[in-house]
């Protein structure tokens, strides 16, 4: 349940369950995951440590609600998307940035995994659910 994986395996849940995909779409999901992982590797090199440390401080602040942390994460992603040159569509870049930030935060402070993961899933559900479904549909065609 709720595993964060970047190797193309389908894990985690969107909006109280699945993204609405049949089990036969595993190959489509693997293709998308491989593409996102490649983009993520490029972005990973561009994200400065101070950005990650700032997010870590927000996640460690128990006085902040998950909603406040989600808003801060969204703000950081928007700022990074402006700073990192990319010729890809903005939604895809923001989605990848959110996943890369999650990985970097958890690698920095592993005990934050659950809170960071829950926040990232919440952020992705709110911001990118339709985009993810559209991306899967486009690859299937």
Model description:
Pfam families: BID. InterPro entries: Bcl-2-like_sf (IPR036834), BID (IPR010479). One of its GO terms (cellular component) is cytosol. With 141 residues, the chain is mainly alpha-helical. It contains 5 helices and no strands. It is 70% helix and 0% strand. The model is unreliable at 12-18 and 20-24 (pLDDT under 50).
Low-confidence sequence ranges: 12-18, 20-24
Mean pLDDT: 80
- Strand tally is 0
- Tell me the domain tally: 1
Biggest sheet: strands, sense, closure?
Answer: none
Radius of gyration, taken over Cα atoms and rounded to an integer in Å: 15 Å
Provide the structure class: mainly alpha
Overall geometric form: globular
> What share of the residues lie within helices?
55-70%
Q: How do the SSEs run, as a string of H and E?
A: HHHHH
Portion in beta strands? under 5%
C-alpha end-to-end distance: 29 Å
Number of helical elements? 5
How is the secondary structure organized here?
Layout: H1 26-46, H2 49-60, H3 66-83, H4 90-108, H5 113-140
Helix pairs in contact: 1-4, 1-5, 2-3, 2-4, 3-4, 3-5, 4-5
Subcellular location: Cytoplasm; Mitochondrion outer membrane
Organism: Emberiza fucata
Main location: cytoplasm
């Amino acid at each position: 349940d709720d595993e964060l994986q970047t190797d193309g395996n389908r894990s985690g849940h969107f909006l109280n369950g699945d993204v609405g995909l049949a089990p036969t779409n595993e190959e489509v999901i693997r293709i998308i995951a491989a593409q996102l992982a490649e983009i993520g590797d490029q972005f990973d090199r561009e994200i400065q440590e101070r950005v990650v440390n700032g997010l870590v401080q927000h996640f460690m602040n128990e006085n902040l609600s998950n909603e406040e942390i989600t808003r801060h994460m969204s703000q950081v992603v928007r700022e990074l998307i402006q700073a990192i040159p990319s010729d890809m569509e903005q939604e895809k870049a923001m989605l990848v940035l959110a996943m890369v930030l999650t990985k970097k935060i958890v690698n920095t402070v592993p005990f934050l995994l659950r809170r960071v993961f829950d926040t990232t899933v919440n952020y992705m559900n709110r911001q990118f659910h339709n985009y993810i479904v559209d991306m899967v549909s486009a690859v299937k065609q």
